[in-house]
Amino acid sequence: MRQDLILFGPPGAGKGTQGALLAERFGMVRLSTGDVLREAVRRGTDMGLAAKRFMDAGELVPDDVILGIVRDYLSGDAAEQSVIFDGFPRTLPQARGLDELLDDLGRPLSAVLVLDVDDEALVRRLSGRRSCAACGAVFNLETDPPVEQGRCDQCSGELVLRPDDEPATVRRRLEVYSQQTAPLLDYYRQSPVEVHHVDGQQSIEKVQAQLAEALGR
Ligand code: AP5
Predict the structure, then answer these.
(1) Please, what is the Cα angle at 97 between 8 and 112, to 5 degrees?
(2) Residue among 18, 30, 33 to mutate when testing ligand 1 (max atoms within 8 A of CB)
(3) Is the four-CA dihedral 150, 199, 186, 8 of positive or negative sign?
(4) pTM value?
(5) Can you say how many angstroms the Cα of residue 119 is from the centroid of all Cα atoms in its chain?
(6) CA 10–ligand 1 middle distance (angstroms)
(7) What backbone phi and psi angles, to 5 degrees, belong to 48?
(8) Which residues, other chains included, contact 32 with Cβ-Cβ below 8 Å and sequence gap of 6+?
(9) What's the pLDDT tens digit per position in 31-74?
(10) Rounded CA gap, 183 and 90, in Å?
(11) 34, 153, 166, 216: most buried by Cβ count inside 10 Å?
């Protein structure tokens, strides 16, 4: 049976890292709205051009754009698969929109998994993150460096700092998270969906083990 879940947490908490591991381990698919938007920016589509100015400023892309991405994904690639939502929903209208979409499709939301990481660690992680310009693989200069400096281990592409990982933009993303996204946890606590918190400041392996445990698998 399909069982969708939300991976929730601030910028740099490890949603992408853990979401990819969970998807592989449990045969699920991961929808990162951030990855979809970055791909649209890279390809220069109308959506990418419109989204770029919000992303570069550390602001949220409008809800209707995001809900359109999710609607297309659920009715296309992921129609028959369990989905990990990474970085979505981020506002109350997005959470309500997701509920409506899932209701219409008869898909249950099984859990919200929250990665807790303090701001100091988030800033350090994001300033050390390097992403492959070609394939999107993620590294960290401090905790997960590439074998060859500046080059992706997987495809030898160039490793770059994401434009929104500049310090001033990171500060704005953290503010936006605490003002617009963190309050969503109350919405889920008041719903029948299970909410599990995991300490995201442990090693990647420990975090992964605790997420799997929280899912009862
Ligand atoms: P998005 O791409 O979703 O960014 P984010 O939520 O800010 O999250 P990040 O990708 O920065 O971090 P992450 O939690 O995935 O951490 P990661 O695993 O990479 O969104 C970008 C922008 O797009 C938004 O600002 C907005 O403009 C727009 N957008 C996207 N979705 C939207 C939506 N729903 N609504 C509106 N706008 C939207 O890890 C970070 C680093 O830490 C890496 O270097 C990693 O190697 C390292 N690391 C990971 N785990 C550990 C660990 N346990 N210990 C040490 N280091 C670790």
Answers:
(1) 25
(2) 33
(3) positive
(4) 0.96
(5) 17
(6) 7
(7) -65, -45
(8) 15, 16, 19, 86, 87
(9) 999 999 999 999 999 999 999 999 999 999 999 999 999 999 99
(10) 9
(11) 34
